[in-house]
Write a structure and sequence with these properties.
By secondary structure, the protein is an alpha+beta fold. 49% of the residues lie in helices and 16% in strands.
């Protein structure tokens, strides 16, 4: 698989089609600067490294990116490779370009200990970063396209890993931004590496029918062209290529290749919206439309600003044709998405204060979730609803359209209008009928929210019925602000009580060093913020206590061991038990492992004295151990077990409910030579499924390894070890 070598002349030629001549010089300067910094850098193939930044910038011209973005595309690798700094770029090219370069460099440099952590943090950083300047992600999308074009040179495992990352993270965001040109290419390239057999099978089937399809499309095009000319409509007609990935998606949903309606397609471009509807009428008068296949995305645009009329008709030779009708401006936005709005039009820059830029509020609202979600994992889980779910469109009484995730209720609608509307809501009507707050809305409904200045605010129960992460974030923020003082006091009391209950001295635990460790771990800016989070239930006092005392407990354990060695109390004999657990200071006692938390070697454990049944071993964090149980707890430790015992552990997997998912899971377990105790799969109404697996492992390390392997399966959202 080869790629076109781009030169600076190619880049300047493309950029000159929409960028002012006086701004072309800064692009050339950026190229000369990057070329100098990368001098001597080559790929393993011998190709100069500067070819990649050039290719990235060339891709950016294809979506009408502005000159600053093109410069950042040329310069970002120089920072990543350590050849220059953002300060130097700021000095030579200005603050705006420097910030773009810094944003792209930060995304590229992100590295985490596990694939799961990597994805969660990466996702979080991208979204929050876009709230500052969305052009960062446009450059990142272009960079991804160029990287994917040359992915063939990498080992197969790395190919699949990168393709999966692109498909799971960048493609959905590219779709939301409406950059179809880049999004579509990334989808096809990802499929090429993730499922090469499927990719080439579809490509081959398309090639076999290529001549026939081209002849049929030409016939249809000539007929439609004649209709347009006869009615004096200025137009442009083109055949529309169907992406391999979109065909794959339809085949995956159970459709036959022959029943994919839009394999034959035409796109008609006209000057005005009025012309769009006139053309639609002319097409339907000539060709019989297929029932239930008409979509008006002009009256009701997609969330990524896509506008067009879609209709499927019985065309020439009896073939079904999907015909798209749109204006030239709609077509530009459909292909280039948000990036098109940085283009130069008729010698003037686009006004960035128009209604279009309200679209960027989506990223700012998403970034607000970062303040209410304690971890990257919770942030990512909440984001899936907003980014990846289907959308509905509900009207206000003033005919404004509110976009919501599918399954949203009246609470989501109210907060989507404004936070204060949600906070002051006392009732609502849908289509002039009074409905409860948990009423699930549908596209086309008219919802009227009634508010009152005397409202005391939202109810905590709304968190249970709300669907959108933005809604939950706003409700949580309300309670955090309203009850901050109360939660501050409550959180401090809970934490100190936890310290006392574990027989630790408060002054010994609450040192500056220990507090700093806890703050860094849970991403709090100060101690008060941590107290507030404990107070409203954002994090448990037990978790914070464990982090605060981590260093102390390690020091005490080391000291105790040293004292035993000095006093000669340390038994150097190798201890072996049937369960692999030793009760300190006690021999010949019945020991069994708890079925609720399923402890395995490597877990922090504690023994619980049960009446007439010896000692039951629990994980230290087991929620089934209450405060009243402390007097019945014993110190226990992991030792070697008889017969190299293996331990049962239960994992829960959340995924998109697709064909062959269960087979993929079983294959992964089989390849890892893991013994399966029990497996259960449950499909949900939202096209997701929950798979519960009980397996046998040696220890925590083997369990973590299996979790990592299962998370790598396509369409798997999360894999967690659960407590029954």
């Amino acid at each position: 698989m080869s790629k076109k070598t781009v030169t600076i002349d190619n880049l300047l030629e493309e950029a000159s089609k929409y960028i002012h001549e006086d701004e072309l010089s800064i692009i050339k300067d950026a190229y000369l600067f990057a070329s100098l910094k990368h001098e001597g850098d080559t790929y393993s193939t011998g190709e100069p490294y500067i070819t990649h930044p050039l290719s990235v910038s060339y891709v950016l011209t294809g979506v009408f990116a502005d000159s600053q973005s093109i410069c950042a595309g040329l310069l970002h690798d120089a920072v990543i490779c350590g050849h220059t700094t953002c300060d130097e770029i700021k000095e030579k090219f200005g603050e705006e370009i420097s910030l773009l370069v810094d944003g792209v460099a930060k995304l590229t440099r992100l590295k985490f200990s596990t694939d799961s952590d990597y994805l969660k943090e990466y996702y979080k950083k991208i979204i929050v970063g876009m709230s500052e300047d969305v052009r960062v992600i446009i450059i990142k999308l272009a960079d991804a396209v160029c990287s994917m074009r040359s992915l063939w040179s990498l080992p197969e495992d790395e190919q699949k890993s990168r393709a999966r990352e692109i498909l799971n993270i960048l493609v959905p965001i590219g779709d939301h931004l409406g950059i179809h040109k880049l999004k579509s290419e990334l989808e096809d390239l990802s499929l090429r590496y993730l499922k090469p057999d499927v990719y080439y099978e579809i490509a081959e089937r398309l090639n076999k029918t290529k001549v026939e399809r081209e002849n049929t499309v030409t016939k249809m095009k000539d007929i439609v062209d004649t209709i347009m000319i006869d009615n004096n409509i200025k137009h442009e007609i083109a055949g529309r290529a169907k992406s391999i990935y979109s065909i794959y998606n339809k085949l995956a949903k159970g459709k036959n290749f022959s029943n994919i309606y839009d394999l034959f397609g035409l796109r008609i471009l006209v000057d005005s919206v009025d012309d769009c509807y006139i053309v639609l009428g002319l097409i339907h008068s000539k060709f019989k439309p297929m029932p239930n296949r008409f979509k008006d995305y002009i009256a009701m645009p997609k969330p990524n600003m896509y506008q067009s009329l879609h209709t499927t008709v019985f065309g020439v030779d009896g073939y079904l044709f999907e015909i798209q009708i749109r204006t030239y401006e709609m077509h530009e936005i459909a292909e280039k998405g948000i990036a098109a709005h940085w283009a130069y039009k008729e010698g003037k820059k686009v006004n960035k204060n128009n209604n279009f830029y309200e679209k960027l509020n989506w990223f700012q609202k998403i970034a607000e979730n970062d303040e209410t979600e304690a971890t990257a994992e919770s942030f990512m889980e909440s984001l899936k609803v907003d980014l990846l779910s289907d959308k509905i469109y509900v009207f206000t009484p003033n005919s404004d359209i509110i976009e919501l995730p599918k399954g949203s209720c009246i609470v989501d609608f109210a907060y989507a209008i404004h936070s204060e509307v949600g906070n002051k809501m006392i009732g609502a009507t849908v289509n002039d009928k009074i409905e409860p707050f948990d009423y699930v809305l549908s596209t086309g409904e008219i919802c009227d929210i009634r508010t009152s200045k005397n409202s005391t605010g939202p109810k905590r129960s709304w968190l249970e019925i709300a669907t959108a992460s933005q809604t939950k974030s706003k409700i949580k923020s309300f309670f955090k602000k309203a009850e901050r003082g109360e939660n501050l006091v409550k959180g401090e009391i809970l934490l100190k009580d936890e310290i006392k209950a574990n027989n630790f001295d408060i002054d010994e635990v609450m040192t500056e060093e220990n507090i700093e460790i806890a703050l860094n771990k849970y991403k709090f800016t100060n101690l008060e913020e941590m107290y507030v989070a404990i107070g409203y239930g954002g994090i448990s006092a037990n978790k914070v206590f464990a982090r605060l005392t981590e260093k102390i407990r390690k020091e005490k354990q080391a000291q105790a061991k040293l004292e035993k060695l000095v006093s000669g109390e340390e038994d150097n004999k190798k201890i072996v038990t049937e369960t692999g657990v030793y009760v300190k200071g006690v021999d010949n006692i019945l020991v069994r492992l708890s079925k609720c938390c399923q402890p395995i070697p490597g877990d922090e454990i504690v023994g619980f004295i049960t009446k007439g049944r010896g000692v039951t071993v629990h994980r230290h964090s087991c929620p089934n151990l209450s405060e009243e149980d402390k007097e019945r707890l014993l110190d226990v430790e992991w030792v070697e077990s008889l017969n190299a015992r293996r331990y049962s552990v239960t994992l829960q997997l959340h995924a998109f409910d697709r064909d062959l998912l269960l087979q993929n899971v079983l294959l992964t377990l089989s390849e890892s030579r893991v013994e399966i105790k029990k497996l259960n799969s449950e499909s949900k109404s939202d096209k997701t499924c929950v798979i519960t697996i009980s397996i046998y492992v040696k220890n925590v390390s083997e369990c973590d390894f299996m979790i990592k392997k299962l998370r790598q399966i396509q369409d798997v959202y999360s894999v967690e070890r659960i407590i029954k």
